[in-house]
Amino acid sequence: MIDVRTIGVAPAQWRYAIGYACMCAWAVVLLLSPAFGAPGAVHAMAASMLPGLVACLAGILGARRFPSVEGRTPFVAAATLLMAAGTFLCTYPPLAALAGARVGGLVLSGCFAIILIMSWFDTYAQLEPRAIIVLAGCAVSAAALLCWAILACPSDVASVLATLLPLLSLAVLPKADRGREQASAPFPGPAPATAPGPLDIMAAAVPLRTLVGLAITFFIVSSIGSLAPEFGLFSAVVSPVSLLVPLGVTAFFSASALLLHGRIDPSALYKVLLSAFAAGVFLLMLSVGISASLVFYANIVAQVLTWMVLALWAKKTPVKPHLVFAVGWIAECAGNTLGQTLAPLFAPRIEAFYAVAIMLILVAVGFAFSEGRVVLEIDFAEGEDDAKPQGGAAGPASAVAAGTATGATGTLLGTASGAAGATGAPLGTASGASLGAAPNANGANPAGPGRADADPVGAFAAAHDLSPREREVAALWLTGHGLKYIENALFISEATVKTHLRNIYRKCDTHNRAEIIALFEHESGRA
């Protein structure tokens, strides 16, 4: 949730905007400008993005053995050097004139660029939501300025400057924090007893509807770039006057971060804006035609919006941030590749492209509005205490609900360590004791002497027709655990947890945590 009182950006973090801007500028200069070859060439996009796709898949398939990308690690530094070497190979005129050297450089730089981008994504995902929005918004203007400076130079000088971009990005990347979780774990917090496989990671990382929306956005932007006529002096589109456009975009993102109300869910909001952006780019193409400036700025803004959506969403999943990016990159790669490949087929029948684009935009906007809610549910947010270990005291927010369950009844709500045993959920840190059978502080059964019901949560779930997964969520929610803990324990996203909670509240005819705890106590004979 965004704190409305502060931007949340520390002085040392402003350099993060430069680091990410270097990556955006590198991609635009290398793949979308005529400085080092035909802009938007199919082979250039495929040669760069498909190796990156392989790197992402390797990260997902080998999540537990993938080297650390959390900060400036030796692995990230080595990948950056290889990225710089590949960039020089495919951009320096005497070398780029050789077809094999150009394609080889694109493959090399594209593959290892993903590692540096993953590291930056992990860094951004650790920031407060408002800081993510502001810094990513500032990166738009910084990237446009870098592109203008590079494209205004002769091709040999531009090649050297493009090669320096990943090195500059690495230089401002924060050092690895040895105190953070081990990089071998694909998720933070309590681990499920059964290690999640690649399909589990992909399902929990980013919702399928979000991935479809990302793919559609990049299909539209990439198609428009492929249908664009040959540009003349491309550097003119990023002249000092035209830089007012990215400055306006930066101002918009900064203002949105400052003015958003605390109850607005930023990940949902910017997902809606991403779909609206695709529609806006399409409408601009219809009204003013395809221009170099439209292609240039559309690609930068699309990259930054996607970055915001994924970084904000990474806070809501049990998957490590760099794996969230990897899954999102697959959708981006699919959209770009399809756009570059199919758009030329539409060139003789541009009306067909318009029809397809409109249909896809409607699908993307529909997905954006149908998944999740832009406004946070207050009860869900108040019940969260991510830092509280299982078996620890409930946080201040959950204490409100727990207040209805403490006292003479001797209930263990908020302090039980055996919720998993009551539901069958395989929590790695759970003791496996039944919720109803766990003793209170005096060693007595809190359900009372002679009571045979050893599984009150099971009985409660059966009485209200809760599904097996809803039963698992209810057991943890009733024992004072927050959203983040449930995400990690059951390896599901925050949105999925909230969906289960809504269903539980509806089936139990309750509206908040306090009411459902009171109902549970009454039906289990604890009240």
Description:
By secondary structure, this protein is mainly α. Helices cover 63% and strands 0% of the residues. The protein contains 22 helices and no strands. It has helices at residues 15-31, 42-61, 74-91, 93-96, 99-125, 129-151, 155-172, 198-205, 208-227, 244-259, 266-288, 292-313, 321-346, 350-370, 378-382, 396-402, 419-423, 456-463, 468-478, 483-490, 494-508, 513-523. Helix 2 crosses helix 5 (99-125), helix 5 crosses helix 13 and helix 9 packs antiparallel against helix 12. The protein is globular and about 80 Å long. 54% of the residues are buried.
Number of helices: 22
Q: How helix-rich are the residues, as a percent range?
A: 55-70%
The main β sheet shows up as: none
* Mass-distribution shape: globular
Rg (CA only): 26 Å
Structural category is: mainly alpha
**N- to C-terminal distance:** 34 Å
**What fraction of residues sit in β-strands?**
under 5%
Order of helices and strands: HHHHHHHHHHHHHHHHHHHHHH
Number of strands: 0
What is the residue-mean pLDDT, rounded to a whole number? 76
Low-confidence stretches: 1-5, 181-187, 381-452
